[in-house]
Specification:
By secondary structure, the chain is mainly alpha-helical. About 35% of the residues lie in helices and about 0% in strands. It is elongated. The termini are far apart. This is DUF3379 domain-containing protein.
Amino acid sequence: MKPSTDDDLLAIFARLRRSDREDAPAWCPELLDAPRQRPEPSRRWMPAVLAASSVVVLSLFLGRMPQHGPSLSEALPPLFDVPSGELFASIEPSLMALEAPSDFLLPEHLNLIHP
């Protein structure tokens, strides 16, 4: 058996190396020292974005404004319309003044409230 030669592969790779050398850009060492140029962002959309965001903010602000309700004098209860009386007359008596339903069963000397 005759060993296969790779002469055809060598020719193909040599042709590819030649085409790579021809298509490769020229070496320019000055480009390495130059500052990198950053692409400028497109400012063409900036006015449209600002207008849209301002419309959204205005609609949120105006949508949450409180509705005109009654004036403060109408909303507050009248303070001086009731007749004057005892200061704490509307407060119910405390629990100490409460008479338990079984107080009548106690002897008279233990009753705090005498009839």
